[in-house]
Design goal:
By secondary structure, the chain is α/β, with parallel strands linked by helices. Helices cover 41% and strands 14% of the residues. 40% of the residues are buried.
Amino acid sequence: MKLAINSGLWQRNPVSQPQKPALDPPHLYLPHTQNHAPGTQLTETLTSGLALGLLLLQLPAVAILMSRLLKGPSRKPPAEPQPPAPDLLGAVSVVVPTLNEAERIGPTLAGLTRQSYEVREIIVVDSRSRDGTQELVKAAGSKDPRFRLIEDDPLPPGWVGRPWALHTGFTHSSEASQWVLGIDADTQPHPGLAAGLIKTALAEGYDMVSLSPQFILKYPGELWLQPALLLTLVYRFGPTGTPSTGPERVMANGQCFLTRRSVLAQLGGYSSASNSFCDDVTLARNAAAQGFKVGFLDGAKLLKVRMYEGAAETWREWGRSLDLKDASSPGQIWGDLWLLLAVQGMPVPVALSFLLSPELSFSPSPPVFLLELNLFLLAVRFALNFAIAPSYDRTQARAGWVFWLSPLADPLAVVRIFLSAIRRPTQWRGRNYG
């Protein structure tokens, strides 16, 4: 609104001198919030109130997030492959749980065969696959006598399939092995993985240590969605290789999970995680709560993984376990959901709603502060793409550039975590659960 300020001219003799016409005055621009119609004022008041409320929701979460991300530069370096050493002879038993993995297990078997003499045995625990998985394992065993194929017993009440298979493998493993290494059938272990992981555990004094892999992505949908889902873990627990603040914040990845045999025996094998769909995190937190040292490191140089085919399978399969509700208290679950909503779910819609507004104003106000905060969060998120890029193998990808647009999938990823948090899976890897 323009407010004109008129001023008269000073006159020495107003009677004898003719009055000169006043010049057009300058116009002063005052904030648009003044002298508006009542309806407009009400709208602006409500907008400012809403913006202030969202700021109060977001600011504490932003402070928590930044305290976690700022630990990134000091995190432990990625684990490296190592040559074998005589003192590691027969040090580890490998356990691979399988159920209809014929399409994916080939690279896993080949990678395990390339591990040196630190691997005493490779026990593949199969849950009566019907797709030729067992035949592939037997073929690998004909070339490498360390392979041993066993079938687990029918699933007992109170158990989920994966921890039951791992527990079966543990009970059938050699007591002469000092370590037990769980490996998933969708991984591609590099030579030197077992030696490198054991040496790292010994050097750092870990009783348990697991690795985050390098993910193989191929299709545009998964290139867009998978990094957004991965960042939900980084936002909640910080970068890999940084210390956790307590047992309840410990992270782990069962795709490559090394444990001292003596520690696993004290924990009752995998029984403490028997009914968990995130058994790796549950087991690691139980161990940490009992005083054992648990590590979670960057393993991109030690193994790759091809988990799912496309965005739909990634959404359905990976998304339903990322909430980690089976390893968390209700308070922790809802606290994490608040943080994800505030720092990952809101920035894209908030920024778009302001930037597409026809009456955008940049005068200092709560809405402007809200916009600036969410633009900052988006800048942080796009920068994190560069930080996580080494965790991805995009050499086989179609339209690999879609990866860089993954921040736009953040609201969808947060929705997936919310959906997973309020529902328990009824089917997993071909098994039905009540």
